[in-house]
Amino acid sequence: MLALIIVAGATVAVPAVADLTSVAVQPLPNDRTGVVVDWRARAGTAVVALRSGRLLAIHSLRRVQPGTRVRVGGIKWGTPTSGIKWSVAPQGIKWGIKWSRNGTYSSRLNAIRRVGGTPVRGVVVQRFGGGVAIGTPGGIVVVRMAVWLPKTGHARTNALVRPVRGDTITTNVQIGRLGRLHGDGARILAGGARVIAVSGRLSAMDIANRSIRISNVSDPSYPVHTNLAVPSTIDMARLAIGSEVVVSAGVTPAGTMRVNQIARNETFAAGNDPANIQVASPPADGGTLGLLSQAIDRWTTGHMNGGITDQAVYDAELARLQRADAAARDGNRSVARTELDAFINEVMAAPPGTVADKLATDVLALAAAAFEQLK
After folding, report:
1. Cis omega before residue 80 (within 30°)?
2. Which among 279, 217, 254 is positioned nearest to 41, based on CA atoms?
3. pLDDT band at residue 325 under the 50/70/90 scheme
4. Which of 32, 58, 228, 325 has the most CB atoms in a 10 Å sphere around its CB?
5. Which positions ≥6 away from 113 have C-beta within 8 Å?
6. CB 85 within 8 A of CB 150
């Protein structure tokens, strides 16, 4: 049996038996209807657009055709209810939906009728010349765009609006006979999302270069293949080519995609199992990365100006600073500290005259400050 505990507005199902995995329950809006805009057979998930346009990837027992208006079954509770401990007493009947640790959901989807369109809102994963891919944990939908100009009242704006990755957009889609989505232009609500959801099949993996590719072909004319860097705090040996995954990704300062969290998604149970979820350590803060960047710049500039007389010392210590910087950006603080500690000790132990005193003082101060901030 499961006991439901309401914590800060979210219901958490706590197992009465120790070896069961707890299941979270997220509140649903009062209107639980939405429109299926994509179906992914590999994971048994329907991407449902609620009336607001918000997208949910819902594991369902049966395939539901895109363009079908559905009612999300959810979980119903009220006051009083046996077995539920409330942090805030609810007023009247409430509805919730089972929410997996990987960000997907599970529910019955009761078909109501076929419809022609619906609003869609979400974060851009990729933009094409004639369309845009929008992601939600567990699903990606491709919206074809005949034009990019959004409507403003009864007149079109003069500016051409083309969203970029990380923009949150809304569009009204018409659903074609084959389930293809056709939008009426992209209205950008916000830019620079810190988290971008990428879902699909793990189609390629390069352990040496620590990168993966996630593929999702919901629209064959616009296949979505996303390359992501994998931090060293993620164990790539636990990843399997061909598996369904949900990735929470961030964008690095260089503009590349980085895995923040990766989880299985073949089923709701697989996605909710903590053993199937890996979370990367966050990168070091901007101040620490700034110190490391300054140390590298000062070391290289000092060498160019003749402040380092031994080329081997310059090369070895530059490599240490670069490894410390890469590890800090990767969130691997222990490795970064190890490299900085070695750098400090080796520069201090270098023969007199190898490194100019002023250069050594400046770079050692920067390295020591970064070392302290990485604790």
Report:
1. yes
2. 217
3. very high
4. 58
5. 68, 69
6. no
H-assigned helices in the chain = 268-272, 286-304, 311-330, 333-348, 357-373
Separation of alpha carbons 159 and 67, rounded Å: 31
Q: Which pair of structure tokens corresponds to residue 129?
A: 């010349």
pLDDT in tens, 261-304: 999 999 999 999 999 999 999 889 999 999 999 999 999 999 99
- Read off the pLDDT of residues 160-192 as tens digits, 9 standing for 90 and up: 668 999 999 999 999 998 899 999 989 999 988
Report the C-alpha gap between 240 and 254 in whole angstroms. 27
CATH number for the region 2-114 comes to: 2.40.50
* Residue ranges of domains in the chain: 2-114, 286-373
Print burial letters for 57-83: b (CB count within 10 Å at least 16), e (below 16): bbbbeeebebbbbbebbbbebeeeeee
DSSP code, position 136: E
| Single-letter code of the amino acid located at 348 | M
Please choose, from the candidates 171, 157, 164, the residue with its C-alpha nearest in 3D space to the C-alpha of residue 55. Answer: 171
The single residue listed with the structure tokens 């009612």 is: 71
Q: Cα separation of 191 and 222, whole Å?
A: 23
* pLDDT tier for residue 97 given thresholds of 50, 70 and 90: confident
